[in-house]
Amino acid sequence: xxxxxxxxxxxxxxxxxxxxxxxxxxxxxxxxxxxFGACEQHGPHLPLITDTLFSEKILSDVFERLPNDxxxxxxxxxxxxxxxxxxxxxGTLSLSGELMLKMVTEVGTxxxxxxxxxxVFFNAHGGQIGLLQAIARELRVKCPSMAVLPCFLWSxxxxxxxxxxxxxxxxxxxxALAETSLMLSLKPDLVGKERPADGGLNTACGENKICVPxxxxxxxAAPCAWLTHDLSxxxxxxxxxxxxSALGNDLRKALVDHWTALFINLMASKWPDVE
Length: 275
Ligand SMILES: [Zn+2]
What we know:
Blueprint: H1 18-26, E1 31-36, H2 50-65, E2 72-74, H3 97-114, E3 118-123, H4 129-142, E4 147-152, H5 160-163, H6 166-171, H7 177-186, E5 197-198, H8 200-203, H9 228-231, E6 238-239, H10 245-268
Parallel strand pairs: 1-2, 1-3, 3-4
Antiparallel strand pairs: 5-6
The structure holds zinc ion (ZN).
């Protein structure tokens, strides 16, 4: 099949007919990218769909820059995810970890059976990183012929450190400077006027808030599986003040550059064994 013949649709799996899907699956190095988002509160100023929109938009930018002849397609987005930490806020929808495991494993197994050789989870919701990594391992064991790569939009992008203050990198966990700025770049009409600063280690000891014990952390080394209400009344964890579209444009470029390079490297590789 001429892979480039469907590039005008950014190589969307669901736009193929069944014969094209069959050919796509059997193409050497066939790779699918599954965008994962969430439908969860993002403070009083960002929409529920924030993470979903990020994974779709960044991936769309990345696919515009990938060479046309690569056998890579995007799957329909999973726009409701695993968001139990935000269920205390109205609007949030969350699937159980058990259901996510079952759903992703069933779909993944069908894709492997068709012959696809790689499946990338392109996830933009921080609260499901660990779950998707565990699911990826289980799926790989079940379908050893298909590589499974569970990545997180904001992870491993070194250039973000040059664009964001340390406080945001370390404690801007949710709906803070980075996410608000990126949304101002991608979809400014969905961004409200408020710019809360809430939650995080420095402010977690305020009235009615739980203080993270010394030596423990929100994420990282010794994490404490926080629920948003432990830390924040507004739903924001971090500081959204100073968010702006120029920073958002820079973040967008950094993310697109990073993931374009990683997808090109992946497609040039033989991982795991695509002979
Ligand atoms: Zn988010």
